[in-house]
Write a structure and sequence with these properties.
Elements lengths: L1 H13 L1 H13 L4 H12 L6 H12 L20 H9 L5 H8 L12 H20 L6 E5 L2 E4 L10 E2 L3
Antiparallel strand pairs: 1-2, 2-3
Helix pairs in contact: 1-2, 2-3, 2-4, 3-4
GO cellular component, one term: site of double-strand break
GO molecular function: DNA topoisomerase binding; double-stranded DNA binding; histone H3K36 methyltransferase activity; histone H3K4 methyltransferase activity; single-stranded DNA binding; single-stranded DNA endodeoxyribonuclease activity
Organism: Heterorhabditis bacteriophora
Length: 168
């Protein structure tokens, strides 16, 4: 681990801008991203640059942006302080999440993202497994009731003297 940290420090000493200049040079020579990452790591030590970083910079350079600066505003916005939502919920426990989001000036919407190949395959596998589970063991037929806290079901073969909370 110390070896990797030393190499990362070496990369910082070389400077990110200098590494990016080398990536641009390799692109102009017609090299591939994997080959570029390997040659930089051979020259400056393992862990200096990974293939994903080289791919990112190749993409930017190919799109005409040959500056070595990070794009401003591309980072994820800072998360809110954990105490803010807690204080809002404690002050008004009956408010909806939408009302809380409005009060915090944050969106209550889910923003989809593009999946890479592995994520698409993984999502397909999970969905297939869930559909197969539904065919083999149809849990929806066993649901007795549900409320705002979740779904409750009776256990097979046990009289409904008590409820068990079902984890989905």
């Amino acid at each position: 681990m110390l070896y990797l940290c030393e190499n990362r420090q070496a990369a910082n000493k070389k400077g990110k801008k200098q590494i990016r200049a080398i990536v641009l040079y390799e692109l102009k020579l017609g090299r591939e991203t994997a080959e570029t990452a390997r040659s930089i790591n051979r020259a400056f030590g393992e862990g200096t640059v990974n293939e994903r970083t080289a791919q990112h910079w190749f993409r930017r350079f190919r799109n005409g942006d040959e500056s070595f600066q990070n794009e401003e505003g591309r980072r994820r916005p800072r998360a809110i302080d954990d105490n803010q939502p807690r204080a809002i919920v404690e002050a008004e426990p009956r408010n909806t999440t939408r009302e809380g989001a409005e009060e915090l000036d944050k969106t209550d919407k889910w923003v989809p993202h593009e999946l890479n190949g592995y994520q698409k395959i993984r999502r397909y596998e999970i969905c297939s497994a869930l559909l197969l589970r539904k065919k083999i063991n149809p849990f929806l037929d066993r649901i007795e009731t549900c409320d705002e806290n979740g779904f409750y079901t009776t256990t097979d073969g046990v009289p409904p003297s008590g409820w068990t909370k079902m984890k989905l």
